[in-house]
Please model this.
Amino acid sequence: MARIVTIIGTRPEIIKMAPVVKALDGLGGHEHVLVHSGQHYDLRMDRVFFQDMELREPDRQFELQDQPPHLQVATTMRQIADVTADADLVLVHGDTNTTVAGALLASKQGRRLGHVEAGIRSFDKTMPEEVNRIIADQLSQMLFAPTPVARENLRRENVTEGVHVVGNSVVDALTQNIAVAEKRSRVLDTLGLKPRGYLLLTFHRAENVDGKAKLAQGLDAFEGAIEESGLPILFPIHPRTARRLREFGLETRAAALADLRRIEPTGYLDMLVLEKNAALVLTDSGGLQEESCFFQVPCVTLRENTERPETLEIGSNVLAGTEPGRVRSAVRRQLGAERGWANPYGDGTTSRRIAELVAAQLG
Ligand code: UD1
Ligand code: UDP
Model:
């Protein structure tokens, strides 16, 4: 009997790995250990997704609250080492500090490593996520690439063995949960929102919120987007961003924008309904670029680059950075975008395909 150890720790890992965890649990004949690093810990960044997605509890739950990035990695490696030590496969997802900790651990312990969402690249090594992705891919023996673009990125880095293009499990999560979300979520009524009557914003990327000038520019850009569209912005705010607004003394400026409605981070089911009914998504999140594409809702990405170039090619998404004039014209353009693009991230069978490949590998 083989032992699979799956490591998660942040909001996007929980969401995108939920279908994969379920598929691996369903394999039978293998031990499947689910480990949570504790990188995200607030109820609304963590527990809510286990409830919304009916994901089983982790077998091992660790604590990591509020450590700097290098200690997140070091502490996770130390805490998880005894769980991965005799794994036949360590599975990590994406690009977080939890991801890179799991990848380094597997490598140092001589364990087989699998990376879900392998090969995506922003080509910007100033982003912590880009460094984490490169390390995880270089150390993996099983690479689950979402698209042919990701496979090509890996080939350019001389990674060709063990690469499988399987789509992105974001689509599995969406297709498995949208009907339940539409049935159960009351979020539009609760917030008094009408379909297509608001812009949906998420904004938490380190390069956007960790400097005062950049975060202030972001607020100017949000104001521009409100004026350009004539619509209010709904802003479920990441704790990192909320903290920075306070630290930089930008609370008053944010509060002065009457049509910038800040709310707590939402659960997954509410988020799906909010995305599906938005006039436009404004974001620096990776997941929202993919999800808005799935929902045929145009997206404006508040970054200078993206590791999701497929969305740019089909026109579901444009890059706008945070300069207010650029954001205004991107909002204008995307509000008029012709929908109907084909979703490049697969058909919702990614998690099943990963489980089949894992089963074949482990025998
Ligand atoms: C991390 C990932 C990022 C991902 C994001 C998803 C890395 C390098 N970055 O960024 O790729 O897009 O998760 O949301 O791993 N905080 C809380 N409560 C929580 C979680 C975070 O208050 O439950 C606050 C803390 O002040 C913490 C800060 O947010 O110090 C940053 O959290 P951290 O997990 O280090 O990075 P994220 O910005 O969440
Ligand atoms: N999400 C959510 N509630 C929120 C914000 C995001 O459920 O208030 C979900 C979103 O639907 C997506 C995931 O969280 O599935 C994206 O996570 P995040 O933006 O934190 O990380 P990234 O994708 O940028 O790594």
Summary: The CA atoms of residues 95 and 132 lie 5 Å apart.
